[in-house]
Each structure stands twice: as structure tokens, then as C-alpha cells.
């Protein structure tokens, strides 16, 4: 697929709406499209512009964005058009520009405790439930497609290119998050496919290290998971989501809520014990200082 490469400061114009946009920088690239930060020349409004030669994929994603626009996790779309570049026709959609980092970048830079990671997975699962209720499967979900909107403190899905109807074949996927690549199931659009993907996202956030089906088996990943200091029920929850994911997404959401509350209690208990330990150390130091002072005064 011929993906357009545009230079910063260049101006492009929509074929039908005649709106002109200045290219600021490339902010993403996938198998069939490039994403640029652009600024509308007249209004100076900034957008993320997704450009591709594949009109079917672009139109399909636009329709899905419009269909699910009320879902809080979905980026807003501001229009669709096409343009001419070097004599060829390209198609684009204008998306809400989110100033922030994707979840992959954020996780690499920050140490996230288990409570925060569980809350992130809960948000993702609730977002996916909306799609499943409408008989759609996300398919190509990954850390790079989950954006942290720091200004509004929200997590956003920024790419719906892999979304397909329940029962169809998964057309767009990333091997790391694809259960067929791990030999854990077929590339069929069903709830269990999305659940497997979410569990790989979960593991990536917990492990903070490289895993890939090209170099490892799913059993190797599970062994790495078992070496973490996780609550046993949480560990079993993730493994079940990988290997025995036959129950509804709603079942896993309810179960993870309970595990989240347990983890919060566990973390609170750890902080209280640490605080108590610090107080005891300070008290011991104070008593030692008092005794030393008394002995010093006595010797004088």
C-alpha cells in the first residue's frame, strides 16, 4: 500500500470542501495509512489527519467513528474528504487531535502500580463492551492505539481500522496482540478475541519488557507473569483470559472490579504498614537519642 509522505509546512487542500491544511508533523503510521498533525489555514484549528489510498478502509472507519461517537473512549471525527498528491488520489478523515502520549510511551516512562494498571484495563473492557453490545469486535487493539488525553484525563481509542462485525474474519491485526500468532485460537471476530488482546495489553503494562510470538510461546509469557508479586486471583484472572476466555466480557468486568477493590485494600495495607514501620524507627531513634543524652549528662 502506497502511504503518503508529506513534508512539514506543506499545504494540502480537500477536493470537495476546499479547506486548506498546513502539515505540522507526522504523528503516526500504520500498514495502510499515515497520520499527520495538521492546522486548518483559515481557522488555525489543529486536527489529526489520517490519510490513505484505501478509500474503503477510510470510509468504513469514518462510518464507525460516527456510529460510536457517543462512546467516551472514541476520538471525535470532524469530516472526510479526498485530495490529490502527485497526480494520485488519497482519502482522509479529520480526527480530534489529542495532546498526550499513547499508553506504550507512557508506560515506558512511568512506574505504574498494579491498582492503576487494573483501573486502565477496566476502562478498556468497559469501552469494548459498548462495541460488543452492537455486535462489533475491535480486533486491532494495542498500546499504541490507546491515547492518554492529559488535558481531559481520559483514555481514548484512536484507531478503529480493525473493527469488524462479530463472526467475520479479523482483517487487521498486530502479531503481538493476535491470538492466532500465539497459537491460542483463530483469527475470528468474537468476544474472546478482544479479551485475549486486552490480556496481552495487561501483561505488557505489568511486565514492562519485550514479548513477541516470534520469539516466545504463550507458556513463556505465563511463566514471566508468575514471577511477578501478583495477587493469586489476579494472576489466575489474566491466565484464564488468555487461555479459557469463553465467558462474556461483562463477566470479566465484574470480576476485575472485585479484584480492583482487593488490590486497593492490599496497597492501602502496605502503605499503613510502611508508615507504622517508619514511626517505629523514628520512635526507636528518639529513645536511643534520649538514653544517649542521659548517659552523657550523667558522665559530665
UniProtKB/TrEMBL annotation:
<dbReference type="GO" id="GO:0004674">
    <property type="term" value="F:protein serine/threonine kinase activity"/>
</dbReference>
<dbReference type="GO" id="GO:0005524">
    <property type="term" value="F:ATP binding"/>
</dbReference>
<protein>
    <submittedName>
        <fullName>Serine/threonine protein kinase</fullName>
    </submittedName>
</protein>
<dbReference type="InterPro" id="IPR000719">
    <property type="entry name" value="Prot_kinase_dom"/>
</dbReference>
<dbReference type="GO" id="GO:0005776">
    <property type="term" value="C:autophagosome"/>
</dbReference>
<feature type="domain" description="Protein kinase">
    <location>
        <begin position="21"/>
        <end position="283"/>
    </location>
</feature>
<dbReference type="InterPro" id="IPR045269">
    <property type="entry name" value="Atg1-like"/>
</dbReference>
<keyword id="KW-0547">Nucleotide-binding</keyword>
<keyword id="KW-0472">Membrane</keyword>
<keyword id="KW-1133">Transmembrane helix</keyword>
<keyword id="KW-0723">Serine/threonine-protein kinase</keyword>
<keyword id="KW-0067">ATP-binding</keyword>
<dbReference type="GO" id="GO:0000407">
    <property type="term" value="C:phagophore assembly site"/>
</dbReference>
<keyword id="KW-0812">Transmembrane</keyword>
<dbReference type="Pfam" id="PF00069">
    <property type="entry name" value="Pkinase"/>
</dbReference>
<keyword id="KW-0418">Kinase</keyword>
<feature type="transmembrane region" description="Helical">
    <location>
        <begin position="279"/>
        <end position="299"/>
    </location>
</feature>
<dbReference type="GO" id="GO:0016020">
    <property type="term" value="C:membrane"/>
</dbReference>
<dbReference type="InterPro" id="IPR011009">
    <property type="entry name" value="Kinase-like_dom_sf"/>
</dbReference>
<dbReference type="GO" id="GO:0005829">
    <property type="term" value="C:cytosol"/>
</dbReference>
<keyword id="KW-0808">Transferase</keyword>
Amino acid at each position: 500500500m502506497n502511504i503518503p509522505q508529506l513534508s512539514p509546512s506543506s499545504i494540502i487542500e480537500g477536493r470537495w470542501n476546499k479547506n486548506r491544511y498546513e502539515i505540522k508533523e507526522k504523528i503516526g503510521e500504520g500498514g495502510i495509512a499515515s497520520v499527520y498533525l495538521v492546522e486548518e489555514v483559515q481557522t488555525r484549528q489543529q486536527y489529526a489527519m489520517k490519510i490513505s489510498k484505501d478509500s474503503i478502509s477510510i470510509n468504513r472507519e469514518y462510518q464507525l467513528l460516527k456510529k460510536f461517537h457517543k462512546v467516551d473512549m472514541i476520538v471525535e471525527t470532524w469530516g472526510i474528504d479526498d485530495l490529490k498528491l502527485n497526480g494520485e488520489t488519497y482519502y482522509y478523515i479529520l480526527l480530534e487531535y489529542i495532546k498526550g502520549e499513547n499508553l506504550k510511551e507512557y508506560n515506558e516512562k512511568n512506574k505504574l502500580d498494579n491498582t492503576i494498571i487494573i483501573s486502565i484495563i477496566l476502562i478498556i473492557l468497559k469501552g469494548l463492551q459498548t462495541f460488543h453490545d452492537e455486535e462489533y469486535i475491535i480486533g486491532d487493539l494495542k498500546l499504541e492505539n490507546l491515547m492518554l488525553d492529559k488535558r481531559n484525563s481520559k483514555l481514548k481509542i484512536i484507531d478503529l481500522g480493525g473493527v469488524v462485525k462479530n463472526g467475520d474474519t479479523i482483517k487487521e491485526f498486530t502479531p503481538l496482540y493476535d491470538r492466532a500468532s500465539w497459537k491460542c485460537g483463530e483469527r475470528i471476530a468474537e468476544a474472546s478475541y478482544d479479551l485475549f488482546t486486552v490480556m496481552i495489553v495487561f501483561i505488557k503494562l505489568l511486565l514492562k519488557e519485550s514479548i513477541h510470538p516470534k520469539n516466545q510461546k504463550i507458556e513463556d509469557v505465563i511463566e514471566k507473569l508468575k514471577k511477578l508479586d501478583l495477587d493469586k486471583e489476579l494472576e489466575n484472572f489474566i491466565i484464564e483470559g488468555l487461555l479459557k476466555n469463553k465467558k462474556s466480557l461483562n463477566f470479566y468486568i465484574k470480576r476485575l472490579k472485585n479484584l480492583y477493590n482487593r488490590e486497593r485494600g492490599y496497597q492501602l495495607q502496605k502503605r499503613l504498614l510502611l508508615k507504622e514501620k517508619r514511626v517505629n524507627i523514628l520512635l526507636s531513634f528518639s529513645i536511643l537519642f534520649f538514653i544517649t543524652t542521659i548517659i552523657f549528662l550523667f558522665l559530665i
